[in-house]
Amino acid sequence: MRSQSTAGFLGAVVAAIVLAAAFIYGPSPSQLRNPTQPAAVQAAPAAEAAPAAPVPRGPVIREVPNN
User: For 28, phi and psi rounded to 5 degrees?
Assistant: First the structure.
């Protein structure tokens, strides 16, 4: 019975530490009430798109000599 009560006490201590860390590192109440608005994305003026260059390919073997 002693090991169960020790484990329960240690579990409560770990839970208290985790709960304290959640309050410390979590968002503040003012951030929850007034969330920041994302910046408006401004599209750049579209320039004429240049045609894409063809992808370089490896050597093409047309015939395989039979030796």
Answer: -75, 160
Question: Cα(47)–Cα(64) distance, rounded to whole angstroms?
Answer: 47
pTM above 0.90, yes or no: no
How far, in whole angstroms, is CA 30 from its chain's centroid?
A: 25
Whole-number Å distance between alpha carbons of 16 and 7: 14
Mean pLDDT of the chain: 79
The H helix count followed by the E strand count for the chain is: 2, 0
Domain segments of the chain: what residues?
2-33
